[in-house]
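Researcher: Sequence recovery benchmark, item below. Answer with residues only.
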């Protein structure tokens, strides 16, 4: 009996120790992840602050401090860091924008399944890639860009797709909305509706529909309530402006971003959306330019590391640039931050960054553009703390299409940045 008691006691100690160590490992894992994220955010802020200081010194005619140390000398020899591309990501306006987006964590899906940048559309005509559910909408010019203008209150449009139930189990939706007023008197309100079934269900009461109301600093979503963004400086210095909307859905969860801030994080939406519509809701006595542009739907959300293990590379369509430039846009920072995190967690990973374009325009221009864009991404990753020796860059122009260049979606899929393991 005494022997049995001793054995049972030892067994309890072993089991307790195993459990304790398992919890210890879990806690350590969480602490490591938290520390990695903190380091990425700090690196992003420090690197972009450095860029802003450099720009200010240049503008004031002050000489910049010379680089010191072996690593800086290596960077000086790197041709990617000596191209004009560096200026594309360190001019005053762009550097400030990238700092604002430095903590953005939205990552676009892998494959574009719908895109409308309104190229080739004529002003005054109904946008050709959409259907009308109510109200009135037309193509208009705002600044130098084509936009979809909602001409009347409660105008709602639905994308034309090859099939009616077109949203996959995992998808992202992005578009830009124009806000004319700051909300102190009248404001634009945009509404996304997610539907459970076919186009006809958009007009039938009682079907599962989740409406999301978006004003310039607030999002309201049916039974999930409302959330407000912290855009206090914008309120003080209001100017009519564009804002970026991003939605990520993964089987049951939904996240929504208004510019750089994540406003909604819903663990269970309650159903799987199969289609969506976008509408404009406003008092047309006061709001004249309720408009949207750059609408894109992407499929997929497989983790970057899983794609590397399976294919030896990953393709991203979430790193975006200004038209015909190598200037990285703010909404690209979610994808870039994810890549930085990946490379910190896996120090054995080295990549060749490859830029690709569609076939629009001159072939030689596209070749140079793809080279500059790949180099710009490398520069940004180096600024965020990744050793330049772990990265190469190369441009392929339009020479390696993965889709047909005859459709907007095909062109969008060809405009990509690939990370090939080396």
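Model:
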């Amino acid at each position: 009996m005494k022997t049995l008691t001793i054995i049972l006691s030892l067994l309890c100690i072993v089991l307790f120790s195993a459990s304790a160590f398992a919890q210890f490992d879990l806690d350590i894992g969480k602490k490591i992840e938290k520390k990695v994220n903190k380091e990425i955010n700090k690196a992003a802020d420090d690197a972009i602050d450095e860029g802003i200081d450099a720009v200010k010194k240049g503008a004031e005619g002050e000489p910049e401090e010379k680089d010191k140390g072996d690593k800086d000398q290596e960077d000086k020899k790197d041709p990617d860091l000596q191209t004009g591309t560096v200026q594309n990501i360190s001019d005053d306006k762009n550097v400030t924008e990238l700092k604002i987006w430095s903590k953005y964590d939205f990552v676009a899906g892998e494959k574009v399944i719908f895109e409308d940048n309104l190229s080739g559309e004529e002003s005054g005509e109904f946008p050709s890639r959409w259907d009308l559910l109510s109200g009135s909408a037309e193509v208009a010019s705002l600044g130098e860009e084509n936009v979809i203008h909602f001409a009347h209150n409660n105008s709602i449009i639905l994308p034309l797709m090859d099939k009616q139930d077109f949203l996959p189990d995992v998808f992202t939706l992005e578009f830009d909305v124009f806000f004319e007023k700051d909300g102190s008197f009248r404001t634009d309100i945009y509404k996304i509706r997610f539907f459970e079934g076919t186009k006809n269900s958009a007009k039938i009461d009682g079907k599962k529909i989740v409406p999301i109301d978006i004003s310039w600093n607030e999002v309201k979503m049916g039974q999930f309530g409302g959330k407000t963004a912290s855009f206090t400086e914008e309120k003080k210095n209001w100017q009519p402006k564009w804002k970026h909307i991003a939605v990520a859905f993964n089987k049951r969860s939904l996240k929504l971003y208004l510019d750089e801030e994540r406003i909604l994080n819903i663990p269970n939406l309650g159903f799987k959306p199969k289609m969506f519509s976008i509408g404009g809701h406003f008092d047309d006595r006061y709001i004249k330019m309720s408009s949207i542009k750059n609408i894109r739907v992407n499929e997929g959300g497989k983790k970057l590391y899983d794609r590397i293990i399976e294919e030896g590379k990953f393709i991203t369509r979430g790193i975006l640039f200004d038209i015909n430039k190598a200037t990285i846009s703010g909404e690209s920072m979610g994808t870039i931050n994810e890549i930085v995190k990946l490379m910190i967690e896996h120090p054995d990973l080295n990549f060749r960054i490859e830029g690709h374009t569609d076939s629009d325009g001159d072939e030689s221009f596209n070749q140079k553009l793809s080279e500059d864009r790949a180099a710009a991404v490398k520069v940004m990753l180096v600024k965020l703390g990744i050793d330049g020796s772990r990265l190469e860059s190369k441009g392929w122009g339009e020479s390696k299409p993965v889709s047909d260049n005859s459709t907007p979606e095909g062109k969008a899929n060809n405009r990509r940045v690939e990370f090939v393991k080396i």
